[in-house]
Amino acid sequence: MSCPDILPEHVLSLLKTSKYVHLATCSKPECIPSIALMNYTYIPPSKVYVKEGEIGEPIERKHYIIIATQKDTAKYENIRQNPQVSILIHDWVTAKKLSLRKNSMSNTPTPEPQRSQDADHPSRLLNLLQELNQSELSQMSATMRGYAECIDPSHEEAKYYEAELLKANPDAAVFIQGNNIAVVKIELESAKVSDRENNTSFYD
């Protein structure tokens, strides 16, 4: 799988630095969809688990998303029944900064309107809304399809990826470690990337 090798650098950067992804799964045979916000870590080919004593195949440049989920959840059962999943990722940083600014402004006392200035200057709220629209539209979003596999918890591979997941999400140990939690690796297979002009590119 070489699909992510040709993804835009912005998307690869998001995979490496973002905190969350949206994970979509679907049951079989009922085809009931489910979506969840997940902590994750991105595993490029250079960090893919290789069994001790073995040499990884350089041709197989596989890219993975690693997640952990409780076994008594819909997404876990869905993955067991139907390993085909989708992942949505986008830039949360801009939205977070704008949200903080919005809250800050909402707590600021509103001065009495001045007729002489209102005619020439848009309100602060209007400026914020304009900036919000421009900032949100300036970002890319990527939807990636993949194949999910629950890793045998007794296997060293599960321990390896659990450690990588904890390293990327040290504040989420309660969601990553435990007897009722499964480590899941998702091999990325294809992607659809959209930009602010509603242009869409496909990679598979």
TrEMBL record:
Biased composition (Polar residues): 101-114
Positions in coiled-coil regions: none
Record's GO cellular component terms: cytoplasm; nucleus
Entry-linked Pfam families: PNPOx_N
Pyridoxamine 5'-phosphate oxidase N-terminal domain ranges (all copies): 7-99
Region spans: Disordered: 101-121
Protein name: LAFE_0H17172g1_1
Source species of the chain: Lachancea fermentati
